C-alpha cells in the first residue's frame, strides 16, 4: 500500500514539475517579448497583446490544481516579478521622470482569492482593462521623453520686483523667428567653418592670403586623415600655424585644436586655451564653444554661461516657430562595444534603401511619400542634406494630392522665405488651411503673424493670444512657448513672469529648445526664477549644441559610412573639443575599435599604442563627466587594468560607482567582484553578494554571471584555504596575457571575471557532494546513490 501511495505521490510531483517548467518557460518567453519593446512603445497593439497574455496566462494557470499553498505563493511571486520586470523596463526608459513602482497594483492583480473562483474570473477582465489603461497613460510619456525634464518647485520661483525690466515690447528680438535673422546663412552664423571643404558649393572666394593658407591647411589636414600621409599633415599644420601667426582668427582656432589634441604638436593646454581665446575675441564661434566647455568643466559657471548664452542666441536664430528646430542630431555610431548598425543604416541619406523606396513611391504619386520626402529635405533628417527648394517642391505636390500636413509647412516656408521669395499673405493662407484640418501647431504661425502685423491688416495681440491658446490647449509645445513670451513681455496681456515661467516649463518639458533658452536666461538673470548659474549653463549648453557648428557631426557620419575612418575620427575629435558628449564617445570608440586604422596623429607621426590608449582614456573620461555610463564603465576598466593610465583600483572603484549610480548592471557586478577580492574596496563578502544581487535585479541578462559569482562566494566562504581560491585569485593577472583570445572567443574585453567564475561551475558539484558525504559520515550514515528516476521518491520502508 505504501509503495502504491509513493508512486501516486511521485506521479503527481512529476506532473507539477512539468507544469512548473512550462510556467517558467512561458514567463521567460513573455518577458523576452516585453524586453524587445523596452524604451519605446511604437506598437501599442503589441504591448496590449503582451499584457493580455500575462492576464490570460494567470487565468489558465489559476484553474489548474496545485499541490500545496507553497506552490501558490511561488507562482504568485514569479508572476509578480514578471509583471514588475515588464513595468520597470518601461519606466527605466523614462528615467528623467520620477516614478514609483506600482507594486500594490500588480499584487492585487496576481493575488488568488480561493473564496470565490467565479468572482475572481470576472475581475480578470476589469484588471486587464485597468492594466491596458495604464499602458495608454504611459504611452505619451514614452513619446515625449527628453534628456532634460524640468521640475520646478515654489522655492525656485523668484517673485517679481520693481527692478525687473518692463521696457521690453513685442518688437524685441524674441519675436524674430521669421525676421531678418533667418536670412543669415550658416557661413554667417559659423564663420571660418570647414563647410567649404565638405560642401564645395558653399565655398566663397578667399579675401586674404591668410584665409588662403588656412583653407589650404585644413584641406590637407582632412586629406591626410584619410590617406595617412604624415608629410601632408606636417604641411597642413605649418600652413595653419602661418595663417594663425598672421592674425587670421579661424586659423588660430584650428591651431588651438592641434595643440589641444597633440597632433604634430606637443600637447599643450595653455597654448590651446590661448589660441582659442584669441580666436573667440575675433568672433570664431567654435572657439567660443571650446572655451565655454573648458569653463564648464572647471565649474566657472559665470564665464561659461556668458559664452554659452551668446552661442545659444546664435543657434535659436534659425529655429522654426512651429517645430523644434532644423537640428542635426549627433548620432552615436556605437552601442556599447558594438557598432550601432541599425542607426547607421537609417542615416545613409539618399543612398538608404528606405529613402529610395519612399522616393519611388512619391514619384508614383503617393501623397504620404511626398510629404515624407519634403520633411527629410526641410529638416535635413536621416542623413539627407537640407534643401528647401526640394522641400517646397514635394510639399506643393503633396498638397495637390490632398495631403493636409504639407499645408502648414508651406505656410512656414513662405513666411521664412526658405527656398522661395517671402510672402506673408500666402503664408497666412496656408497656415489657415492647415488649422482648419486640425493641425494645431499652425496656430502658432498664425498668432505670430498677428503679433507682427505681417500678412494682415494690422497687429492684433488679442487674436494672437487666442491662437497661441488654441495651440497650447492641444498640448503644442510652441503654443506654451509663445504664451510664455506674451506674459514675459506683457504683449496684449498684463506682464506676469510667473505665468510666463510656467508656460516655458511646459514647453521645455515638451522638447521646445527655445523654451530651454528662455529658462536659461531666467536662471542666469534671476528674473522669474532664483538665480542658478550651474543650471543656466547646462541649459544654454543644450541649446548651443544645436547651432550650425553641429554640421561637423553630419560630415563625420558621412565619412564613417564611406569607410573613411580617419577622417571621421578627426571630425569627431574636433567636436569633442567643443563639448559634444556623443562625439567624445564616438572618437574614443573609433580609437579602441580601429586602432591604427583610426589614423590617429601624435606629436611626431602616427600615435603609438600608448598614445592611443591615453587619448581614448581622456575622451572616455570627458564623456563620463557628461553622463555617459558606458564611458564611466570603460574608465573603471582602464584604471583596473592600467590601460592608458596607471593601474589604480581605488579610482577604478570610483568610476564603477559613477556608472552604478546610473543603474549600470556591469558596474554593480564589478563592484561586487572588487569587494570579494578586496581590490580598491574593503574585503566584504556580504557587500559583494549585495552588489551581485543588484546587478541581476537591474539586468536579468546578468543571471548567469551572477550565479557563477555567487558560487565563487560560496567556495571562498566554505573553503577559504582551498587551493582553488588562490588559483581563482590569480586569474585576473593571467587575463592580460590572453586578452585577445578572451575578446574573440568568450567575451568583450574588460570582463575578466567570467574566467574567474567559470571554474566554479566545474567544481561546485564536487565540493557540495564532498560536504554532504562528510555530514553523513559524522552521523554514522552511509550515503547511497539514488536511482536517477527516484530522486524525489521516499525510500521504501
UniProtKB/TrEMBL annotation:
The protein's name: ERAD-associated E3 ubiquitin-protein ligase component HRD3A
Pfam families per UniProt: Sel1 (PF08238)
Give the bilayer topology.
Answer: Single-pass membrane protein
Q: Which residues cross the membrane?
A: 129-149, 750-767
Q: Give GO terms for biological process.
A: ERAD pathway
Tell me which domain of life the UniProt entry assigns to the organism this sequence originates from. Answer: Eukaryota
Q: Which GO terms describe its cellular component?
A: endoplasmic reticulum membrane
Family under the similarity heading: Belongs to the sel-1 family.
Top-down, what is the taxonomic lineage of the species of origin?
Answer: Eukaryota, Viridiplantae, Streptophyta, Embryophyta, Tracheophyta
Q: What InterPro entries would the database entry show?
A: HRD3 (IPR044623), Sel1-like (IPR006597), TPR-like_helical_dom_sf (IPR011990)
Amino acid at each position: 500500500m505504501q509503495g502504491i501511495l509513493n508512486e501516486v505521490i511521485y506521479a503527481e510531483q512529476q506532473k507539477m514539475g512539468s507544469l512548473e517548467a512550462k510556467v517558467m518557460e512561458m514567463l521567460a518567453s513573455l518577458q523576452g517579448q516585453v524586453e524587445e519593446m523596452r524604451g519605446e512603445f511604437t506598437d501599442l497593439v503589441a504591448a496590449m497583446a503582451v499584457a493580455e497574455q500575462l492576464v490570460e496566462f494567470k487565468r489558465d494557470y489559476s484553474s489548474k490544481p496545485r499541490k500545496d499553498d507553497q506552490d501558490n505563493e511561488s507562482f504568485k511571486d514569479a508572476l509578480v516579478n514578471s509583471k514588475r520586470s515588464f513595468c520597470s523596463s518601461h519606466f527605466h526608459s523614462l528615467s528623467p521622470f520620477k516614478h514609483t513602482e506600482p507594486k500594490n497594483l500588480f499584487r492585487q492583480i496576481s493575488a488568488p482569492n480561493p473564496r470565490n473562483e467565479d468572482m475572481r474570473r470576472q475581475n480578470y477582465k476589469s484588471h486587464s482593462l485597468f492594466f491596458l489603461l495604464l499602458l495608454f497613460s504611459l504611452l505619451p510619456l514614452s513619446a515625449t521623453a527628453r534628456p532634460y525634464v524640468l521640475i520646478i518647485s515654489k522655492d525656485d520661483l523668484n517673485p517679481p520686483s520693481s527692478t525687473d525690466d518692463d521696457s521690453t515690447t513685442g518688437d524685441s528680438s524674441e519675436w524674430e523667428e521669421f525676421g531678418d535673422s533667418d536670412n543669415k546663412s550658416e557661413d554667417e552664423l559659423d564663420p571660418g567653418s570647414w563647410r567649404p571643404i565638405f560642401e564645395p558649393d558653399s565655398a566663397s572666394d578667399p579675401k586674404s592670403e591668410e584665409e588662403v593658407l588656412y583653407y589650404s591647411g585644413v584641406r590637407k589636414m582632412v586629406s591626410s586623415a584619410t590617406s595617412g600621409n604624415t608629410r601632408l599633415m606636417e604641411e597642413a599644420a605649418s600652413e595653419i600655424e602661418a595663417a594663425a601667426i598672421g592674425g587670421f582668427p579661424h586659423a588660430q582656432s584650428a591651431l588651438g585644436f592641434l595643440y589641444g589634441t597633440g597632433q604634430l604638436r606637443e600637447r599643450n593646454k595653455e597654448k590651446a586655451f590661448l589660441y582659442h581665446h584669441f580666436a573667440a575675441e575675433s568672433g570664431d564661434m567654435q572657439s567660443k564653444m571650446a572655451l565655454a566647455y573648458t569653463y564648464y568643466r572647471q565649474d566657472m559657471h559665470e564665464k561659461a554661461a556668458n559664452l554659452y548664452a551668446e552661442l545659444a542666441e546664435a543657434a535659436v536664430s534659425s529655429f522654426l516657430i512651429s517645430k523644434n528646430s532644423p537640428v542635426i542630431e549627433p548620432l552615436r555610431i556605437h552601442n556599447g562595444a558594438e557598432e550601432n548598425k541599425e542607426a547607421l543604416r537609417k542615416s545613409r541619406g539618399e543612398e538608404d534603401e528606405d529613402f529610395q523606396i519612399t522616393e519611388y513611391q512619391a514619384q508614383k504619386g503617393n501623397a504620404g511619400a511626398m510629404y515624407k520626402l519634403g520633411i527629410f529635405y526641410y529638416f535635413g533628417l536621416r542623413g539627407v542634406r537640407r534643401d528647401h527648394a526640394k522641400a517646397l517642391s514635394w510639399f506643393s505636390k503633396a498638397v495637390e494630392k490632398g495631403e493636409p500636413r504639407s499645408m502648414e509647412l508651406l505656410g512656414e516656408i513662405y513666411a521664412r522665405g526658405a527656398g522661395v521669395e517671402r510672402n506673408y499673405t500666402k503664408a497666412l493662407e496656408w497656415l489657415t488651411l492647415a488649422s482648419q484640418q486640425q493641425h494645431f501647431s499652425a496656430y502658432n504661425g498664425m498668432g505670430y503673424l498677428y503679433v507682427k502685423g505681417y500678412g494682415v491688416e494690422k497687429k492684433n495681440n488679442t487674436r494672437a493670444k487666442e491662437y497661441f491658446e488654441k495651440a497650447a490647449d492641444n498640448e503644442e509645445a510652441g503654443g506654451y512657448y509663445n504664451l510664455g513670451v506674451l506674459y514675459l513681455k506683457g504683449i496684449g496681456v498684463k506682464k506676469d513672469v510667473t505665468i510666463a515661467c510656467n508656460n516655458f516649463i511646459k514647453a521645455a518639458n515638451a522638447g521646445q529648445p527655445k523654451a530651454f533658452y528662455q529658462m536659461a536666461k531666467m536662471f542666469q538673470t534671476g528674473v522669474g526664477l532664483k538665480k542658478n548659474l550651474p543650471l543656466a549653463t547646462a541649459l544654454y549648453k543644450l541649446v548651443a549644441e544645436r547651432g550650425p557648428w553641429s554640421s561637423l557631426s553630419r560630415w563625420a557620419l558621412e565619412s564613417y559610412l564611406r569607410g573613411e575612418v580617419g577622417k571621421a575620427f578627426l571630425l569627431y575629435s574636433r567636436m569633442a573639443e567643443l563639448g559634444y558628449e556623443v562625439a567624445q564617445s564616438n572618437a574614443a570608440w573609433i580609437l579602441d575599435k580601429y586602432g591604427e586604422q583610426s589614423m590617429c596623429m601624435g606629436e611626431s607621426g602616427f600615435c603609438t599604442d600608448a598614445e592611443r590608449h591615453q587619448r581614448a582614456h581622456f575622451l572616455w573620461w570627458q564623456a563620463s563627466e557628461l553622463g555617459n555610463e558606458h564611458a564611466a564603465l570603460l574608465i573603471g576598466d582602464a584604471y583596473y587594468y592600467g590601460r592608458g593610465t596607471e593601474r589604480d583600483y581605488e579610482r577604478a572603484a570610483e568610476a564603477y560607482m559613477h556608472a552604478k549610480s546610473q543603474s549600470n548592471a556591469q558596474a554593480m557586478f564589478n563592484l561586487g567582484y572588487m569587494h570579494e577580492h578586496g581590490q580598491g574596496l574593503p574585503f566584504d563578502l556580504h557587500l559583494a553578494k549585495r552588489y551581485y544581487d543588484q546587478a541581476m535585479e537591474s539586468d536579468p541578462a546578468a543571471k548567469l554571471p551572477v550565479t557563477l559569482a555567487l558560487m565563487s562566494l560560496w567556495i571562498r566562504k566554505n573553503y577559504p584555504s582551498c587551493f582553488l581560491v588562490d588559483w581563482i585569485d590569480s586569474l585576473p593577472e593571467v587575463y592580460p596575457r590572453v586578452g585577445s583570445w578572451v575578446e574573440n572567443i568568450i567575451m568583450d574585453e574588460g570582463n575578466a571575471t567570467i574566467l574567474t567564475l567559470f571554474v566554479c561551475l566545474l567544481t561546485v558539484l564536487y565540493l557540495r557532494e564532498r560536504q554532504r558525504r562528510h555530514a553523513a559520515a559524522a552521523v554514522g550514515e552511509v550515503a547511497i546513490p539514488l536511482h536517477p528516476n527516484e530522486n524525489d521518491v521516499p525510500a521504501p520502508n
